[in-house]
Amino acid sequence: MHSDLSLQHDISLRPFNTFGIDARARHYVRVTSSEQLRLALADPALAALPRLVLGGGSNLLLTGDFDGLVLHIASTGKEVLAGDTQHVHVRAAAGENWHEFVQWTLAQGLGGLENLALIPGTVGAAPIQNIGAYGLETQDVFHSLTAFDPATGSEVTLDRAACRFAYRDSLFKQEDGRHLIVTSVTFALPRAWQPNLRYAELAAAVAEQGIAAPTARQVADTVIAVRRRKLPDPREIGNAGSFFKNPVVSAAQCAQLLERWPALVHHRQADGSEKLAAGWLIDQCGWKGRSLGAAGVYEKQALVLVNRGGATGEDVQRLARAIQDDVEARYGVRLEPEPVFV
Ligand SMILES: Cc1cc2nc3c(=O)[nH]c(=O)nc-3n(C[C@H](O)[C@H](O)[C@H](O)COP(=O)(O)OP(=O)(O)OC[C@H]3O[C@@H](n4cnc5c(N)ncnc54)[C@H](O)[C@@H]3O)c2cc1C
């Protein structure tokens, strides 16, 4: 193996996942550049192992020890590119911390990413589930990305259409894209910036401060304050953010549910379907604040499952299944987990 790579064996992944699950990895390597990534996968012994590409570990549930190679993406670098008449392009390496990158764009005087402030994890993982919050998704500000294809040993550039973004979904979660390793992402930020206050709670939080025409910085600060109020800090209590996706149902199914439960929280989608608030469904089933063993449901937000101390991946899965079964029995809707199970 190449001397530039420091391969470690049988290590705990506890510091590398925000749930704080103490699973172990058979092999682990931290790669700080595309060149190191290429080198690691040019080694036939390493390339043959089952692989887990790891960013900030904030959207993972480790269900047990990982008997393969963990490739920890820690590449850095960010730059402002020329762009076009409408947009400034900014590019960052996959290993950059997402929130720090958002802050950096704001410091450059560039708005566009502020609604996604304080989401944990890395830039490289943002396109994987098309991260979204407060009325904005990655795809809305995405230009292109580069990814390493271990099958060919070369890098490819993919535009927005090629990434097949959807709600918490992309090419990289599908069979034909799962092997790709994102190495950098380029965003297209509007030259003529306007605040995006489509999300009612964000608009209300801005208005509450008496701000009529917020700057991008003020929107970011508001998003940060709202998130801090609602979500547990993984450094204090292990979690992976929202544990379930909001289920999307037909208008007819939503209408039927509303007949029985008029208070059902739902949001109409552009295609006429309805997105139900998974947190509301879970809360109505009485799960908020409850625990099963060392895994629990966060007191302030029923969509977030937490590690109350020493939880295993199996504990979290058991709790998740119990919630899924209850919600399905009552509302006929099966909740789908958002984190990736490893
Ligand atoms: C408190 C909290 C709040 C959150 N809030 C939100 C939110 O508002 N909206 C939202 O969408 N998400 C949210 N999340 C989930 C999470 O932060 C995002 O999904 C984030 O993008 C995950 O980044 P990561 O680097 O930690 O990815 P990881 O957890 O390390 O990996 C997640 C998946 O992406 C893959 N992956 C990671 N990096 C790469 C790469 N370079 N190339 C290819 N595949 C890769 C991994 O293999 C894995 O399948 C939240 C999580 C927490 C803990």
TrEMBL record:
Catalytic positions are 168, 242, 338
- Domain named FAD-binding PCMH-type is located at 21-192
Pathway the protein contributes to: Cell wall biogenesis; peptidoglycan biosynthesis
Q: Name one GO molecular function term.
A: UDP-N-acetylmuramate dehydrogenase activity
Q: Which reaction does it catalyse?
A: UDP-N-acetyl-alpha-D-muramate + NADP(+) = UDP-N-acetyl-3-O-(1-carboxyvinyl)-alpha-D-glucosamine + NADPH + H(+)
Any idea which UniProt keywords this protein has?
Cell cycle, Cell division, Cell shape, Cell wall biogenesis/degradation, Cytoplasm, FAD, Flavoprotein, NADP, Oxidoreductase, Peptidoglycan synthesis
User: Is Repeat among this UniProt entry's keywords?
Assistant: no
Q: Which InterPro entries match?
A: FAD-bd_PCMH, FAD-bd_PCMH-like_sf, FAD-bd_PCMH_sub1, FAD-bd_PCMH_sub2, MurB, MurB_C, MurB_C_sf, Oxid_FAD_bind_N
Localization of this protein: Cytoplasm
What cofactors does the UniProt entry give for this protein? FAD
EC number(s) of the enzyme?
A: 1.3.1.98
* Pfam families attached to this UniProt entry: FAD_binding_4, MurB_C
**Which family is this sequence assigned to?**
Belongs to the MurB family.
Fetch the NCBIfam families from UniProt.
murB, PRK00046.1, PRK13903.1
Q: What the protein does?
A: Cell wall formation.
- What is the name of this protein? UDP-N-acetylenolpyruvoylglucosamine reductase
Which species does this protein come from?
Answer: Pseudoduganella chitinolytica
